[in-house]
Design a protein that fits this description.
About 30% of the residues lie in helices and about 20% in strands. By secondary structure, it is an alpha/beta fold. It has two domains: about 270 residues, Rossmann fold; about 35 residues, no CATH class. The chain has an eight-stranded mixed sheet, sandwiched between helices. Strands 10-11-12 form a three-stranded antiparallel sheet. The chain has a two-stranded antiparallel sheet with strand order 1-2. Helix 1 packs across helix 6. The termini are far apart.
C-alpha cells in the first residue's frame, strides 16, 4: 500500500499528501513512528477529501500526532481530546475525526470524557497508544501499568490494579473495539481501516513500546521466542486458533474461556470457538478483551463491531424533525414569536 496512488473519486491522494514537514521528535525506536506511518497509509484510501480530516489529541507523547500529519488538527489539553473531538464532529458531521490519545491521557484525567464518548457512540475514530507508562512526564505509573511495577511514582511497586482498555470500552457500551501491535504495521493498517469503516466510536488499543521508561513492557507478546503462544489473530467467522503449529485454540467452557490443544482429550477444530464480532451480547467480547498472558494469548484484531445508531445521527435527525415541525423558520420569526411589546 505504501506509495500507492489510490483513486478516491474526488482527487488522487498518496501517503506523501499527509506527511507533515515538521521534524518528528519521538525517541528513536519509539512505537509511535510505526503508528504514524500506518495512519499515513490509511488516510489516502478512505475516499475522504484531504480537507475533511481532523486529528485531535490531548497531552502526552502520542498527542504530538497532529503536528506530524498534514491535515487540520488540534493539540488540545490533558484528557480533553474526546470533548473537543465530539464538538468538532457535531459542528460538521461530514468530517473524518481521529482522536489520538495515550493510556494516561484517556483513562486517568480524561477518564470521564473517554467513557461518555464511548457511551454516546459519536462517530469518531479513537487511537489509544498503550505503553503502560507516562512517557512525556518521565516515567510515572499510569492506569494501565501492571500491579507491582516500580516507576518514578511507585518506587516500591504500584498498589493499584490496572485498567484493561478493552474491558473498559465494552463495559461503557462500546460498539467497536480492536487491538493491534506497533510491531506489526500490516495488521495495524488493516485494523485502522476497519475502524474507519465503523459508524460510531471506534476504539483501537495499540500495544506500543516506550523504549525509555517501559521498554519491553509487551515483550511476552511481541518477542520472537514467545509471540506464537501469546498472539491470537482473530477474524470474523473463523475459529480462535493460535500457536506456532496452529494447534492451540480457545473454547467456551460453560461461562468461561479456556485454552485447549487440538488433538488432545478428543478436542478437534470443530470444538474451537468461532469469532463473531457482530454479536450484540457483549459477554464473549468482554472475555476476549480480558484475555492476558500468561494464562491466555492476547486477542488481536477487531474484537467487537456492532452497528447501531450514532449520537451525531440522532442529533441531526432531531434537528431535522424540529425544523420540519416548527413555525419558526428564520431569526425574524424567532424574534417576533411569543409575546412582544413596545417600550416608549
Amino acid at each position: 500500500m505504501e506509495n500507492q496512488i489510490i483513486e478516491t473519486g474526488i482527487v488522487q491522494l498518496t501517503k506523501e499528501d499527509f506527511s507533515s514537514d515538521q521534524m518528528v521528535k519521538w525517541c528513536p525506536g519509539c512505537g509511535d513512528h510505526a503508528i504514524l506511518h500506518a495512519v499515513e497509509n490509511v488516510f489516502p484510501s478512505l475516499g475522504v477529501p484531504k480537507e475533511d480530516f481532523v486529528v485531535v489529541s490531548g497531552i502526552g507523547c502520542s498527542s504530538r500526532f497532529p503536528y506530524y500529519m498534514n491535515t487540520y488538527g488540534i493539540h488540545s489539553i490533558h484528557g480533553r481530546a474526546a470533548a473537543i473531538a465530539t464538538g468538532v464532529k457535531l459542528a460538521n458531521p461530514k468530517l473524518s475525526v481521529w482522536m489520538i490519545t495515550g493510556d494516561g491521557d484517556s483513562m486517568a484525567i480524561g477518564g470521564n470524557h473517554f467513557i461518555h464518548t464511548i457511551r454516546r457512540n459519536i462517530d469518531i475514530n479513537l487511537l489509544l497508544f498503550n505503553n503502560k507508562i507516562y512517557g512525556l512526564t518521565k516515567g510515572q505509573y499510569s492506569p494501565t501499568t501492571p500491579k507491582g511495577s516500580k516507576t518514578k511514582t511507585s518506587p516500591q511497586g504500584t498498589y493499584e490494579r490496572p485498567f484493561n482498555p478493552g474491558v473498559l470500552v465494552i463495559g461503557a457500551q462500546g460498539t467497536f473495539f480492536a487491538r493491534t501491535l506497533d510491531t506489526n504495521p500490516k495488521a495495524m493498517t488493516g485494523v485502522f481501516m476497519e475502524a474507519a469503516k465503523h459508524k460510531g466510536t471506534s476504539v483501537v488499543e495499540i500495544l506500543q513500546n516506550c523504549v525509555i521508561f517501559a521498554n519491553k513492557t509487551h515483550d511476552l507478546i511481541t518477542s520472537r521466542e514467545t509471540r506464537d503462544d501469546y498472539q491470537l489473530f482473530i477474524e470474523h467467522g473463523k475459529p480462535l486458533i493460535f500457536g506456532k503449529d496452529r494447534k492451540k485454540g480457545i473454547v467456551l467452557n460453560g461461562t468461561k474461556l479456556e485454552v485447549v490443544t487440538i488433538g488432545e482429550n478428543g478436542i478437534t477444530e470443530n470444538d474451537i470457538l468461532v469469532h463473531d464480532q457482530y454479536e450484540k451480547d457483549s459477554g464473549v467480547h468482554t472475555m476476549m478483551a480480558a484475555m492476558m498472558p500468561p494464562e491466555f494469548p492476547v486477542a488481536l484484531g477487531v474484537i467487537r463491531s456492532v452497528p447501531t445508531e450514532t449520537f451525531d445521527q440522532a442529533m441531526m435527525a432531531s434537528i431535522e424533525t424540529e425544523k420540519a415541525n416548527s413555525n419558526i423558520k428564520t431569526v425574524d420569526d424567532l424574534l417576533n414569536s411569543g409575546a412582544t411589546w413596545e417600550i416608549k
